[in-house]
Records
---
Amino acid sequence: MSERSPAPGGLALVESLVNTLDIETGADFLDTADGRARFGIAEEEAPLARELRESLRATLLAHAGHPPHREITPLGRLLAGAPLVLDVDERDGSAALAPADGGPLPSRVAAAVAQALVEGTWTRLKACEADTCHWAYYDRSPAGRGRWCSMRVCGARAKMRRYRAKDA
């Protein structure tokens, strides 16, 4: 539910995958053909995509200093078999890991994570601390200590709860 601009580079894929589930309403965009088409997955691939999504969410919560939201398969285990190739640009010699075999979703996610590691941006992708949200967002704050996907919604709710708790 963020008003923030999308994450840079390949992290936009990770952010949009995590944000296919609206925890507050239960709406799962991977339940729809259009939602799956955004990620190039078939209906039978949706269970793996959901497992990958929740493992990513737990990792993004860890980036923000929070425990996992539930039991998950570790992200490293899900991405361990993701086929990647080293792609070297013949014009300028730049290199990057790229998905192999037509780019299945786990390979595209693994390539995005690898590139973000190289760029130093991986830990800036976080999940909102609000239990009813856990929406992914890219933390552009100078100190890298953002807590909520939206200051106007989740941040305001948290501050209001804290204020009311003081008066009680």
---
Amino acid sequence: MIPFRTSAAALFAAVALAAVPATAVAHDGSHPFENCTEAYDNGYSNIAKGDEHYGKHLDRDNDGVGCDQPPSGFVPRDESDDDAGTEAGAKEESGGGTDLAETGGSDTTPYIAAGGGAVVLLGGGLMIAARKRRENR
């Protein structure tokens, strides 16, 4: 029984590691936030309709303003960074910026991770079946 537990633990660890990259998606600022928690974490609240960060799913009361109830510890982003951003933006485009690289995740990333997990599960199942078959001989 112990080899089965070891195989199951290795299989579980492989599936968990395959799912982790799918969850790390950076917000690049050119689309609506997934939810208000993400908006608040990035310093955005009271997102007006027409703003690039606005999404109908963020405006539960349909008043044209999304994420209009920030939590008590909310810290708004520094607006002065946007004004001085032209010089910093030029540095980033030329490769001189100090920001971290984006993750490169897309809408298909979860499906690719799920496919990888399915392959790992199938391989683990085949290993277990082969082991049981050898034991029964």
---
Amino acid sequence: MTRDATDRRIIAATQAGLPLVAEPYAEVAGWLGLSEAEVIARLTAMQDAGIVRRVALAPNHYALGMQANGMSVWDVADDRAEALGEAVGALSFVSHCYLRPRALPLWPYNLFAMLHGPDRATVEAHRAEVADILGDACARHDILYSTRILKKTGMRLRPEG
């Protein structure tokens, strides 16, 4: 739940995304009659409170020329997964990388990394690069290729009333 009506107005104003301008928070502030500092402070406070999980980009990889996209999944030693995940997440061809609990016995993977490239051969080369980074800490891996673009949206508030 938001803290007050101003927080709700900020969420409503940004739920479709930030404006693509040099100073997006100042733009939002102007729409709402607030200062840029207040918008930033309130979003930060909402993140700290767990109301807003993150502010992030959701690019259309196909429009950027990345026609092959695959979620690579890795069974990585738990004691090394966090550090190795940071190394994988820093690669230029990885848009997001995260740890999740395994769902044994059917799903042994705990490290996920979305790999992108202009074609599958490039993505497979990227997967080999990730495998080299993970080395003997990785017991097995697989990749799930995207077959269509899924709608990516953030949180949406229901209209009050």
---
Amino acid sequence: MKIFLVRHGADEEGFRGGWSSRGLIEQGVFQSRRLGEFLHRYQDEYGIRTIMSSDLPRAVETAREIERIINKETNYSEDLEGKE
């Protein structure tokens, strides 16, 4: 089994920290689409079966762009929020 960890696409400059309701900026959406295209191209080689994501807005937006392109449904979980 292979596990790929992906950070969400770009969000607002100057804002950092976990649990906000802020989403991706245009560049972040573009980055997420590009990643989706890359993963689609190598989907068979990588054996992608599942997408998992935190339920934070910018992570959800990133996952939705990827799932739309590789045609896999995402499993969202608050357990993946990375709380300290």
